[in-house]
């Protein structure tokens, strides 16, 4: 029997985009302070709710920065055989909780204002909303590329997208209140922002749970992987195949390959590693070859 390993050399996806997270963090933190101050001054729930979401961004981006630093740090304990790559997944989960908390606060505050909507300063809403939209567009452009590779960066990107929608909502609320003279529009837009944030949190949360639950990576079908491996010369069968995601851009596989008599086991390993890497993007595969199913494999029930 032999064991084969395929190792990714491209590096950690979140770590490659850490500078984008850092720049976005500075922009968002600065605007959060501006929006909170003017939201309180103008008595606008839409501005305050968006500032609350921005505060969630500040925490989430800070957590993402810490997570990417931890994830790329070399293990000195000898106990983390997979490194600390899962840190970014936990940071994304933390982001989900923050987003849900902000959404709940906005909805509860909006309900408390029903029938007693205070006057709001629409001029301040429009100016701050427009400034926020500019900040969020710049942040989106910074994070868009990294969001395709890293779940951690994707969480931050979703936050910024939600913020951009929030800024548009603030502008719309300012216009509606100014035209109609009805402060209720400020409350209604705030609720819409809260619902939008909650929906984005659920989407990201499902992705986080899929990784933590060690589900098969998105876009990969187990039966197809088995068929591909069994089609290789010298492979008589495949069993005990497991596929999961360690962290963004790092899919992992383990499997037992039953090798035909007379076949070169090492050559089979090399070909199997190659097809997993090129066809399915699985660069780390731990493969074991055997001439026939062992008694141990037959006895294991999971």
UniProtKB/TrEMBL annotation:
Transmembrane residue ranges: 21-41, 47-68, 89-108, 120-143, 155-178, 184-203
All residue ranges annotated as the Cation efflux protein cytoplasmic domain in the record: 217-290
Keyword list, A-Z: Ion transport, Membrane, Transmembrane, Transmembrane helix, Transport
Gene3D superfamilies: Cation efflux protein transmembrane domain
Topology within the bilayer: Multi-pass membrane protein
Localisation: Membrane
GO cellular component annotations of the record: plasma membrane
Single GO molecular function: zinc ion transmembrane transporter activity
Predominant subcellular localization, coarse grouping: membrane
Domain Cation efflux protein transmembrane: 22-212
Family from the record: Belongs to the cation diffusion facilitator (CDF) transporter (TC 2.A.4) family. SLC30A subfamily.
PANTHER family cross-referenced by the UniProt entry: CATION EFFLUX PROTEIN/ ZINC TRANSPORTER (PTHR11562), RE54080P-RELATED (PTHR11562:SF17)
Name the record gives this protein: Cation transporter
Organism: Aeromicrobium flavum
